[in-house]
């Protein structure tokens, strides 16, 4: 059932059907791979954020930018991978119209932030290598916070407009989206009316949000290389370039496939849907997974503190185990001691019951003495009848 808006000119369907990997072989293996990617993304990025947050010496502009990238990576993969897993497990590929727009908004907002976050890291390297004496002026925590804030506001704002104009389209025919999520271009191409505005916004924002940061990154590294090769010491050159390796890896992994897939998706319609979905999912899901791994393993400060954190956790686990072992051993010893004392007191009680009566024999008359001797004889003989002659003789002697 469709909802008709604006005097029957705009038709919004209840939702869309996400058609991904319809003929893709071994889709279960690929979904398992994406699930693994998502788990690695969560674990390493959360670990990265925790290490930086708990170490005040890492509260620097560079690591603020790293935390920003880690947050973006978590949200970016969360916007797509869980929905793919849900579709595969429950065979439910229907997405309500508003939820589709929300997924579209989150994905494109954070994919845009991803490119700008890499540009911010390039700015950090540019200032650190080319202007080391002015780093406290041009690259402070306040300046880094402003840069991050501006990119967030811009990305969220421009993508909000791009998503809002999707409501002007009328979907009166097919509602099958040939992608693995509510992708922008495959959705607006299902519209019955003119989508020139949406196409223009998509192509322009893609060029600006991808080519803009990439151009800045390339120019930054040109300046960095010029500065590095002006250094007289080869050792200083190598140290300067070594600080850029992890960032260059992330730039190559992110921009190369994203640019190719997005541009082909916008300008070429003859691409095979399964190939496009596979390429796009890999291009958008792998970088957030690699980013945290690269920074965790390659950056010395993070690696050192991560190892220290693991060592501390292991030491605490061993200490806790030893404490539990000692406590258990002490409890066993105490229990054994208490049981031994109870047995000893029980034995003493039996002795008292058997022989305690003797201390009062000198105060008894003959009849009472005879009765007590009979009772004592029965006790000592374990309940057997005592010889009356022996009892009488014993009482007489006493």
Automatic annotation (TrEMBL):
The keyword Nuclease does not apply. It comes from the Eukaryota. The keyword Membrane applies. Residues 44-295 form the G-protein coupled receptors family 1 profile domain. Keywords: Cell membrane, Disulfide bond, G-protein coupled receptor, Glycoprotein, Membrane, Olfaction, Receptor, Sensory transduction, Transducer, Transmembrane, Transmembrane helix. GO terms for cellular component: plasma membrane. This is G-protein coupled receptors family 1 profile domain-containing protein.
